[in-house]
Design goal:
The complex is a heterodimer. By secondary structure, chain A is mainly beta. Chain A has no helices and eleven strands. By secondary structure, chain B is mainly beta. Chain B contains no helices and twelve strands. In chain B, the strands form three sheets. In chain B, strands 2, 5, 6, 10, 11 and 12 form a six-stranded mixed beta sheet that branches. In chain B, strands 3-9-8-7 form a four-stranded antiparallel beta sheet, with no helix packed on it. A two-stranded antiparallel ribbon of chain B has the order 1-4. The relative contact order of chain B is 0.34. Classes of the chains: A mainly beta, B mainly beta. Chains A and B meet through strand 4, strand 5, strand 9 and strand 10 of A and strand 5, strand 6 and strand 10 of B.
Chain lengths: ~110, ~110
């Protein structure tokens, strides 16, 4: 079945460490997104990518980095510069840039700093 | 800039009650509008969508109509079930494929 796979589902990080969240899609979608969700709050855009080897900062990019070396993969690195990284992270994709279709979401990764 | 505002929750209803969750938006151009549902610990699932004014999206008994004159996209269901308990997000997509989400409304349905 086609879809978006995020891994791991739960992730624990020690303070001062970098950690990478995986997002893979087999939907052949062009655009991919990373969102952060805090308890009881909506989604905030971290980074997005329209095509391979290109990405743009979203509203809360500080302390995060991404890469888009392959169409199907858009990993997110949470660096030690991110002051409050504990949150639920959601990856999403859409079929084409500028189309009228919805975003498809992964199941999320819950990151906890210990 | 573009934005979405939806009613704060939680909304608590008895089973078979009528549901309305209000959503209004601000946008330039001609956005597409969406309702997503999120169950605990999971990602967002598309519930319904509308891509132009006066379109009605519907799915699983839920409906929402794209009202350009009132810039609204209210979610309704005639008879809620316990299994509808979740968080509901209103969202818009602008002409540049960027999404804007509301803050979410938690629905609790009691048997």
């Amino acid at each position: 079945d086609g879809g978006i796979t995020q891994s791991p589902k739960y992730l624990f990080r020690k303070e001062g460490q970098n950690v990478t969240l995986s997002c893979e899609q087999n939907l052949n979608h062009d655009a991919m997104y990373w969102y952060r969700q805090d308890p009881g709050q909506g989604l905030r855009l971290i980074y997005y990518s329209q095509i391979v080897n290109d990405f743009q900062k979203g509203d809360i990019a500080e302390g995060y980095s991404v890469s888009r070396e392959k169409k199907e993969s858009f990993p997110l690195t949470v660096t030690s510069a991110q002051k409050n990284p504990t949150a639920f992270y959601l990856c999403a994709s859409t079929p084409q840039w500028g189309g009228l279709t919805e975003a498809f979401f992964g199941q999320g990764t819950r990151l906890t700093v210990v | 800039g573009d934005s979405v505002t939806q009613m704060e929750g939680p909304v608590t209803l008895s089973e078979e009650a009528f549901l309305t969750i209000n959503c209004t938006y601000t946008a330039t151009g001609y956005p597409s509008l969406f309702w997503y549902v999120q169950y605990p610990g999971e990602g967002l699932q598309l519930l319904l969508k509308a891509t132009k004014a006066d379109d009605k999206g519907s799915n699983k008994g839920f409906e929402a109509t794209y009202r350009k004159e009132t810039t609204s996209f209210h979610l309704e269901k005639g008879s809620v079930q316990v299994s509808d308990s979740a968080v509901y997000f209103c969202a818009l997509k602008d002409n540049f494929n960027k999404f804007y989400f509301g803050s979410g409304t938690k629905l609790n349905v009691k048997p």
